[in-house]
Amino acid sequence: MPELVQIRPEASDLADGEALPGIEISPDFREFVQARSVDEMVRLAQEVLADPTFPTVRAWRKAGGKAVGCFPVYTPQELVHSFGMLPVAMQGGGENLEISRADAALGSFLCSISKSTLEMALTGLLDPFDAFVFPYICDVSRNLDGIFTRVLPQSPSHMLHLPQNFTSQATIPFLVAEYRRLIEKLERVAGQPFSQEDLRASLEVFNEQRELVRRLATVKRETPWKVTLIEYYLLLRLGGLLPREIHIPLLRRALTEIEGRERKNKDAIRVLVVGPFCEQPTLELLQLVEDVGCYVVGEEFQMLHRWCPRIEPGADPLKSLAASYVRTPLDIGVRSTPTTKGAAILSRVDASKAQGVLFLTAKFCEPALEDVVLYRRALEGRGLPYLHMEFEEKSTTYEQARLQLETFVESILFE
Amino acid sequence: MSEDVSAPAPPGVVSPTFLRDARRLQRKLVEEYYGELASAEKPRRPVAYMLVGGNLTEILRSFGYDVVFPEIVGLNCAIKHQSLDNILHAESLGYGSDVCGYVKNDLGLQDLGGKTSFGQIPRPDLLVCSFSGCYIYVKWWEALAESYGAPLFMYDVPYMREETPRKEDIDYLVSQLWELVRLLERRTGRAFDLDKLKRVLAESRRAEDGWVDFLRAGRLRPSPIEAYFESIFYMFPINVLRGTAAAADFYGIVNEEVRTRVRDGNYPLPEEKYRVLVEGVPPYTNYRTFWNFFRKWGAVSVVATYPKVGGLFDRGFRHDPSRPFESIAEYSLGAYVNQSWPLRRKIIADYVKEYQADAAIIHGIKSCRSFTAGQGDLRDWLIHDQRVPTLYIESDHQDPRYFAAAQIKNRMDAFFESLEQRRAVAAAAGAATA
């Protein structure tokens, strides 16, 4: 795996008013099409993630395309795609973005991702987007939509009410209607009417992407020594930033290499990582998790690619899409659990054969923080070890994190 | 809600004038409510826990349930300075410093056995999560369900992004309401009584009329009511006892006393110097202190958003016995924090005009993202787009550790000083022109 690269200067190093330079990607995404090795893909991904100017979106626009920014955790990307637009996972500004204006608009006790997303809106970094979707995953995401309507009045923004009642007979019809509400806006942005046939085709594209992501996750779970956490994570991140038609063959090439690797199983502990489903930790922190001796065999990264299994388009693809959201057995902090939190975490531990759980929650992320208490109770009931760490988008020192992680690993190794 | 308001005010500060009969009656209603909840009589009525926003108290009441509102229990603990022990206990269970104060106060209290100075809070037989306006409701009710093993009914209320609800929103809600009714029939063994529900709704409507009359008194100059601090005391019947004759009668008495106040010239302050709009949840742990920061400057809140968390009755909504389920569905959508920011901004802009507010004070809550996330932007909008002098301050509704009295007082003093100076300059300019 290549060294983690620092592509651009810190924003604080720039003179006042000086814009961050953005990397340029060719409109046909040649760099990604031609990337043959996982090392090459990972290097490209790092360059893209280090650049808060959304280089893949700018490249897409150069080719005449329109893009819709989708706040985590789940947006029915297929709907955006069916209009020929690029659904883009907006996952914060990362560690290179300085927050100067968003603090005043949002208040002090809010997560980094909300502030960096608003900062990007206020400083023009989201200009390449034509519209935004904010799913109701938490109150902050919901309220960001309302702020966007004021600060970016020229770009339509939509708050998507994702239902929380998964047993009512009326939920799927409601979600279909809710998706139609989103479609009304997408039609205006795209300048074309919704087409069931186009949605059917989009569902197949995302089915293919989901299947490949599922394969990669299986490799990570069953043979975690074959793919590092950083490689795994970055390959998933690209899935929300590249046109899916570019990401799918890239992922297929990556899988061929990864599945064929002959690497030795290290004496590492198997860990389930819970919590980073929305705001993202730094790559350095992820690197540290493996450096201290953890194999991450289950996690919540980029769940938008793994929300549900294959979706059969059927006669009514919109209804199929809605039903897939409602019926998925997924346990995650942003939807009410279909069982109990305790049962859910234990079944995930069993499925991943994890020896311990690492709660990696974003600072101020209330959905994650409240689940941790119930999860911990269940783990304690079974005598399973866990560690809870909080992170923010900008982290500079990792000594304490290293110490905590090393102690956690040692406590399991020497049990 | 039963803070002793008859205590002497600090020197130089006018004591708040409370409505006398209504105040006594309100205290009696609160005591009776908690007394009945704590009653050890057998067989006792079944208990449902519910949230204030979008609550379904009329349906539960028609099935004979006692309804507990943990938010209201929480604020009662906070105003009586009893919340910190509960919060610290919740933190010892693993709830971090950034978790909602209501959640920690309640879950801490529950884990300690539910005993308060105002009564024993009974265990729930049913948990109805009226998910309207705050995502943390889902988490909170999941935690209660795991603690008590009680069944949880998730009543999913769509977020309001347009002024008028869409048909699909109402259809979704009405379907869920019928599913709740079927659940209640199974649990109680009683058949649903539509006529009883209509009678309960008629009482709700009567209480809503009275509550709105009270709130609208803030439009008078000077205002005979304190629309933030005083209204919060009188929210108890409209939120907790709605659907009873007692709640409806209560507002009749309140409004009679308001009329007496106007007749006698008996106002919240001797001189109403500033008419203020207040946005946000109050710091219950330092309620009186915070109130004094207003009174010192002759500032009277003439309108506030927080008393609308239980419903936007003053914007025209009423429960309707002739359309029982549809109107309950519409009510559920109307919790203040279930309104998108564009809708909230419109409500506030209307309030500023209708109530002739001179300034706005926004009280942000450290642990409440639902109400607070975006209030900084609201301040910017009020100042720059609406030209309303606005102050943003921050503490917590439940956790006294976050109320920095000196800092808040300094900021409020500076704000009112600047208003005073602005007035003086304007008056001088007016005199010079004349």
Topology (elements, then pairings):
The complex is a heterodimer of chains A (415) and B (434).
Chain A: H1 30-33, H2 38-49, H3 55-62, E1 67-70, H4 77-82, E2 86-89, H5 102-106, H6 112-122, E3 131-135, H7 139-151, E4 157-160, H8 171-190, H9 196-222, H10 229-238, H11 244-259, E5 269-274, H12 283-291, E6 294-298, H13 317-327, H14 341-352, E7 356-362, H15 366-382, E8 386-391, H16 399-413
Helix pairs in contact in A: 2-10, 6-7, 8-13, 9-11, 14-15
Chain B: H1 20-38, E1 47-49, H2 57-62, E2 66-68, H3 70-79, H4 83-93, H5 101-111, E3 115-116, E4 119-120, E5 126-131, H6 136-148, E6 152-156, H7 167-188, H8 194-216, H9 229-233, H10 235-240, H11 245-264, E7 274-279, H12 287-295, E8 299-304, H13 324-333, H14 341-354, E9 359-365, H15 369-372, H16 375-385, E10 390-395, H17 405-433
Parallel strand pairs in B: 1-2, 1-5, 5-6, 7-8, 7-9, 9-10
Antiparallel strand pairs in B: 3-4
Short description:
By secondary structure, chain A is α/β, with parallel strands linked by helices. Chain A has helices at residues 30-33, 38-49, 55-62, 77-82, 102-106, 112-122, 139-151, 171-190, 196-222, 229-238, 244-259, 283-291, 317-327, 341-352, 366-382, 399-413; strands at residues 67-70, 86-89, 131-135, 157-160, 269-274, 294-298, 356-362, 386-391.
Describe the structure.
The complex is a heterodimer of chains A (415) and B (434). By secondary structure, chain A is of the alpha/beta class. Chain A has 16 helices and eight strands. Chain A has a four-stranded parallel β-sheet with strand order 2-1-3-4. Chain B is α/β, with parallel strands linked by helices and 434 residues long. Helix content of chain B is 51%, strand content 11%. In chain B, the strands form three sheets. In chain B, strands 2-1-5-6 form a four-stranded parallel β-sheet, sandwiched between helices. A four-stranded parallel β-sheet of chain B has the order 8-7-9-10, with helices on both faces. Chain B is globular and about 80 Å long. The relative contact order of chain B is 0.13.
